[in-house]
Amino acid sequence: MSTNYPTSLDALTNPLATDSLASPSHSAQHANANDAIEALQAKVGVDSSSVTTSLDYRVGVLENAGTGLEDLTLLFYMEVA
Fold first, then answer.
1. CA–CA separation, 53 vs 61, rounded Å?
2. pTM > 0.85
3. For the purposes of burial, counting CB atoms within 10 Å of the CB of 35, is it exposed (0-12), middle (13-18) or buried (19 or more)?
4. Domain boundaries, the chain
5. Angle CA(61)–CA(44)–CA(41) in degrees, nearest 5?
6. In this predicted structure, what is the pLDDT of residue 2?
């Protein structure tokens, strides 16, 4: 199974201690977890990401926009005073 994330959430199987390594398949269990982890990393992004769909990039844009707005507000109050 490849991951469905981010279009939908995955339904991963948590094997029990009494389950054999074949139910679910041991290798498939690791492959599914790895696919999900890679999808999360792609969505979140790395520090200072330039990937415009990553959360890191989008948060950076919002932080920079917020700083600009704060600076404009301060400048406005300085001009009025």
1. 11
2. no
3. middle
4. 1-44, 46-81
5. 150
6. 82
